[in-house]
Every structure is written in C-alpha cells, then in structure tokens.
Amino acid sequence: MTETYAARARAAGHEVRIWHLHDMAFDPDYGFGGYKNQKPLEPQLEDFLATLEWSEHFVLACPMWWGGMPAKLKGLFDRCLLPGRSFDTRGSGLPKPLLTGRSAQVLLTSDSPWWYFRLLHRPLMWQVKRQIFGFVGFKPVRFTHFTQASHPAPGQVDKWLDRVGRIAARAA
Fold first, then answer.
1. Mean pLDDT of 80-89
2. Measured by CB atoms within 10 angstroms of the end CB, which terminus of the chain is less buried, N or C?
3. pLDDT per position as a tens digit, 51-64
4. If you average pLDDT over every residue of the chain, what do you get?
5. What would the pLDDT profile of 108-156 be if each residue is shown by its tens digit?
6. Long-range contacts of range 71-78, CB-CB < 8 Å, 24 or more positions apart?
7. CA distance linking residue 77 with residue 99, whole number of Å
8. 2-171: CATH, from 3.30.470.20, 3.40.50.720, 3.40.50.360, 1.10.3210.10
C-alpha cells in the first residue's frame, strides 16, 4: 500500500520518503525517561523525526493487531513524539502542538469486518487521529480501513491498491 501511494504521489510531482518500521533498529521502550530526563534518540529515530518535521503529508500503513496498533509502532510514537520537537508543555493549559500545517492518512488493515471495527475498535481510531496525530498538530487525519486482510478474496488486494491510488491522487 505504501509503495502504491508513493508511486501515485511521485507521479503528481511530490517528493516522497518511505520508512519501513520493520527495518528500523531502536529501543521502543521509553523506559525511565521523562520530560526532564529524556532518553536519547537513536540515529534512525532522529532521522525519522526529521522526516516527520519535513513532511507536509504523512501516510501510515499498518495492521491492527489485537485491537490496537503493533507494539513497535506505538514505541516509535512514544520515543519520537516528545516535548520540544512535537509539542510544547510550557505555559498554561493544554500542550501546544508543534507539527501543525501537516495532514495525515492512515491505511489500516485488519480481519475485523467494517461494522465490527466501527462498533468495537473506535478507540483505536480515536487514539491515532486525536491522541497521537491531532495532539502534535496534524489536521486533517483521514482513516481508511481495509478488512479481511489475512484471507482476502481473489482480486481484493488489487481493488485495495486501486483505492489507495485514488486516495493518493485526491491528496495530491
């Protein structure tokens, strides 16, 4: 899905950078770090965060595992989206988002039927859209769900990729 989206965006003249989480080497555990005693970012996390700051539009393609996001993805967010670079905790009230002026598209695969996802897995959508991307300033955050991912019907993957291409074309 990311390759299809990237190809369509490049064809529209956009510069694209792709990161594959499975290739990234970092400790996903924030450990005993805190706002005042932050755990240093590994070089790949620094590079990823620099890419996030550079981006105008961020696309996340991931599976839903056990009703949530994969642990390493959550670890990426925990480690990279920190005060000073992605939000500012100084001042009164809610933290100020520092990654404004960007949008995001989430492409989520799962085995849950769409109606079941909408009924029972809405907290995942809320977490990704509001508590993660929205909190640091991404707006709008669009969410597309692809169901029955483990055993798609014949031709289904091609239909999904066509849909991803259309989504990318609209974003361009």
1. 93
2. C
3. 999 999 999 999 99
4. 92
5. 999 887 777 777 777 888 999 999 999 999 999 999 999 999 999 999 9
6. 71/28, 72/21, 72/22, 72/24, 72/28, 73/21, 74/28, 75/26, 75/27, 75/28, 75/29, 75/30, 76/21, 76/24, 76/26, 76/28, 76/45, 76/48, 77/132, 78/28, 78/29, 78/30
7. 14
8. 3.40.50.360
Tokens of 14: 């956009």
Q: Residue written as tokens 């996001």?
A: 69
Q: Tally helices (H) and strands (E) across the chain.
A: 7, 5
Residues in the chain: 172
